[in-house]
Design a protein that fits this description.
Elements lengths: L13 E3 L4 H7 L1 H16 L12 H18 L15 H9 L6 H18 L5 H14 L20 E3 L1
Parallel strand pairs: 1-2
The structure holds protoporphyrin IX containing FE.
Pfam family, one: Bac_globin
InterPro entries: GlbO/GLB3-like, Globin-like_sf, Globin/Proto, Hemoglobin_trunc
Protein name: Globin
């Protein structure tokens, strides 16, 4: 699928909008989103970023569950992630979760490439325009998870760097 990736630039404001609810509905609601995300994580375990994630099966299952809930809510579905984010705005909370990991541009590209494969498997029946809108959110938002840069420096995105359109 022709879903482009543009380079992260340290400290540069990132514009994005949350994915449309129409994508969530087209993928098959809660169940469909769960299938997409479980497939994504199966692929993550075959990827170059597998070592970032828990190797313990039960812990891995927890990550899959929480990840599915986040995407259900961020796409406008039921607020099933609300209790996890402790009242914080969902995207802001998600940026802070990633501060605990040392993530560089190559890791981000691998994450996005893995998601692109999962989308190709699971979203064949979904309108390409909706897939693109979902992708635009991922491609932009993922820039805010990168905190290690090629010059060896670290930078943790401030929420003020975020520009929600
Ligand atoms: C659009 C970009 C991304 C989104 C929306 C996203 C979303 C998520 C979500 C929802 C979780 C589970 C949070 C929870 O525990 O409640 C998570 C965990 C995690 N993500 Fe991401 N992620 C993104 C990019 C990345 C990238 C680029 C990496 C690179 C390695 C990454 C690595 C991780 C790791 C290591 C965890 C934690 C696993 C654990 O709990 O041990 N994520 N992410």
């Amino acid at each position: 699928m022709d879903l482009p990736i543009t380079a992260v630039e340290k400290g540069k404001p990132v514009h994005f909008k949350n994915p449309p609810k129409a994508f969530y509905e087209a993928i098959g609601g809660e169940e469909g989103m769960k299938e997409l995300m479980y497939n994504f994580y199966d692929k993550i375990y075959e990827s170059k970023i597998a070592h970032f994630f828990p190797q313990d099966e039960e812990e891995f299952e927890e990550v899959k569950k929480k990840n599915s809930k986040f995407f259900i809510q961020i796409c406008g579905g039921p607020k099933v992630y609300e209790n996890e984010s402790k009242g914080m705005e969902l995207n802001e909370y998600m940026i802070r979760i990633h501060d605990d990991f040392s993530i560089n541009e190559n890791n981000r590209i691998e994450w996005l490439g893995t998601m692109r494969e999962a989308l190709a498997d699971k979203a064949q029946h979904v309108d390409i325009g909706l897939i693109r809108e979902f992708w635009e959110y991922l491609e932009a938002f993922s820039k805010l998870t990168v905190n290690n840069f090629a010059d060896g420096s670290t930078y943790y995105a401030a929420y003020t760097q975020v520009k929600e359109d």
